[in-house]
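look at this fold:
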Amino acid sequence: MKFLGHEFSEQDKENLRNTGNMGRVVDLVNPKTNEIIPSIISKDRLTNELVALNTNYMKIPDDIKGVKLNDEQKQILSEGKPLYLEGMISNKGDSFNASVQFNAEKRYVEFLIDPNKKMDQAMNRQQTVNEEPQKVFRGKELTDQQFENLKEGKSVYLSGLTDQKGNTYNGYITFSKDSGATEFSFQNPAKVVEQAKPDEAHKTQVAVNSEGKTNEATKNVKESLQAAQTSPVNKKQAEEQQKTKQPNRSRRRKL
């Protein structure tokens, strides 16, 4: 299993399964420029898609829930590793301990919940839910107006998102105050506009390029799909697709 030139170790895979974060900094290769970029990797919990973040964009806070971080603790977080903190103060004024780690997909330090510990669900939820959405979604920064609309619970249309193969797609995002997550959909969930329709143009592209699914009309095309593509778009792709459509002629011997 490779991702942008990185070969995952068994420990990497286990970390991604358990916490959603790989837990270390690795050198990734930009597929367009071949530039080597030190990055951390996390898994989008909604789509299971891998997300990488350049370490230059990691912002480590000075304190977390009342606990001031020293240089050593900040260094641990900047390396993508988990950090156990004691004496944090919840929104209700209660003291609690927990592990925290920087998440590449969310672009901030999150709380890691130990599944082996029986924690009060309300307390658990209180510590992990974000009070407001992040201004960056899948690498795209929202405008001030889009950010305000998202905070108000409105659906926001985003264009120019990029899938794992570098092609763009569009869709809607909505912030859930209950889960604290920003959710993506090809269709406007709130249906703010009567004529809002699913962004069908990009469903096939993302399904094939990022989710590993197969589209019957393009299953033999070796290139990554472009926006709105559901069938071959050029002679080369048409020839690749046509190869398996032609039935094999049975060999018969003339008497």
User: Anything to note?
Assistant: The chain has two domains: 2-128, 136-234. The mean pLDDT is 76. The first helix runs from residue 10 to 18.
